[in-house]
Amino acid sequence: MTDVRHTAATDGDVLHTLFRSDQGGHEQVVLCQDRESGLKAVIAIHSTALGPALGGTRFHAYADEADPEAAAVRDALNLSRGMSYKNALAGLDHGGGKAVIIGDPEQIKSEELLLAYGRFVASLGGRYVTACDVGTYVHDMDVIARENKWTTGRSPENGGAGDSSVLTSFGVFQGMRAAAQHLWGSPSLAGRRVGVAGVGKVGHYLVDHLIEDGAEVIITDVRQESINRVQQAHPKVAVALDTDALIREPLDIYAPCALGGALNDETVPALTAKVVCGAANNQLDHPGVEKDLADRGILYAPDYVVNAGGVIQVADELHGFDFDRAKAKATKIFDTTLEIFTRAEADGIPPAVAADRIAEQRMADARR
């Protein structure tokens, strides 16, 4: 059984990454281009062993990359693989897929482009179900759904569940509670100091849960308006200058809730927190980071386990959305996370390895 790390990609050989047997290999990758609308997109399907691939659509510019298209493919491959594991651990009958639309959404996003993208998703005949991700929102899914019935994360007015960030944050909160139970003997976060890096779509809801549970919260974000929104709701929340300053604050828990690669060779040695549990995807910058965390006695809650509340929400929408039913399923993230910590401790392995093995077993059983 292989141990797959969900990391930020650095390998420039895209085809090698696509067919790597130690990562399960990808079933299908579709390159999409519509010249009239300016659409350039990648749709990656990692696995359909458990059912149709389900994962969001990221809209991102990759402005700092020498080859934006190759960077987008690598991102889609990493993210789709992570979705296979996330969906398996969430108990969903879905495989893993992800899409990336290349470009600055504030500059090129248009109705024409989204409709063109929807037609490409529709051409896959249900092998891939799309939803929101970084740079895409509920109203975007409403537009995409006009060309493609395999779209979720839509608005309630259009038969959808609305903002999936609601249950994503709830699931991360359950993961934090499980970490507290495992490490300190109680699931309560009252009196714990939690640093949240990124208080946008998911992070600001997470702050709500933490404050309600009695935690002391300190935040940072690159967008001042996001910070202002949190402080208006919770005036006692403190603000760090940036992520580098935040991780050096005395913390019990660090929650990376922005883009991936947050845990790397520079940040891990500087961490003061005893727990890392956040909403960001692909938090481990490279495979050795989880061992570095373990060596420092830092308990890492695998991101693809604790941030599964959103995909649970959008998957429920496909069957006629019921918020209470979806929330009840997201509550089980507490039990899953605790099971992973217990297995990791018993087997003497990092939590991410334990999580991978549980997910791989479910996918292997389904293939058989």
UniProtKB/TrEMBL annotation:
NAD(+) binds at residues 198-203. GO terms for biological process: L-valine catabolic process. The active site is at residue 98. It holds the Pfam family ELFV_dehydrog_N. SUPFAM superfamilies: Aminoacid dehydrogenase-like, N-terminal domain, NAD(P)-binding Rossmann-fold domains. Gene3D superfamilies: Leucine Dehydrogenase, chain A, domain 1, NAD(P)-binding Rossmann-like Domain. It is found in: Cytoplasm. Belongs to the Glu/Leu/Phe/Val dehydrogenases family. This is Valine dehydrogenase. It comes from Streptomyces coryli. The lineage of its organism: Bacteria, Bacillati, Actinomycetota, Actinomycetes, Kitasatosporales.
